[in-house]
Amino acid sequence: MVGYRIYCKHNSQNNFYNRVKKQTLQNATYQRILHVLKKVPKNQVINFIIDRKAVIDVFNKFPNTYRDRQNTLHLDTLI
Fold first, then answer.
1. Which residues, 6 or more positions from 66, have their beta carbon under 8 angstroms from its beta carbon?
2. For the chain, what are the domain ranges?
3. I need a labelling partner for 73 at 20 to 30 A (CA). Which of 23, 33, 42, 63 fits?
4. 74 pLDDT exceeds 70?
5. Residue 63, exposed/middle/buried by CB under 10 A (0-12, 13-18, 19+)?
């Protein structure tokens, strides 16, 4: 079973954990990022610490063409 956790600081109301819908570690990272982006106000600075190279590579080279998108795993979650 795969899950994800968001930790801000001790006893913070923003700390959160949940199960991953599609059971992969990459999806866990995407769901964690999505949760933070939905909950944090747009004018607040966010620092992500991500230890999954595959996810970092996707964000550094986001698929922009139709062909690249067809070959991208978890495209539905990224969009």
1. none
2. 3-78
3. 42
4. no
5. middle
pTM of the model: 0.65
Beta-carbon count within 10 A of 33 CB: 19
Residue that has been written with the tokens 């990459």 in this structure? 26
Here the tokens at position 72 are 């991208």
Among candidates 45, 14, 44, which has minimal Cα distance to 32?
Answer: 14
Residue with the two structure tokens 């986001």: 62
The Cα–Cα gap between 61 and 50 comes to 16
Residue (of 23, 17, 28) closest to 54 by Cα position: 28
Say how far apart CA 48 and CA 32 lie, in whole Å: 10
Identify whether the C-beta of residue 52 lies closer than 8 Å to the C-beta of residue 29: yes
- pLDDT above 80 for 45: yes
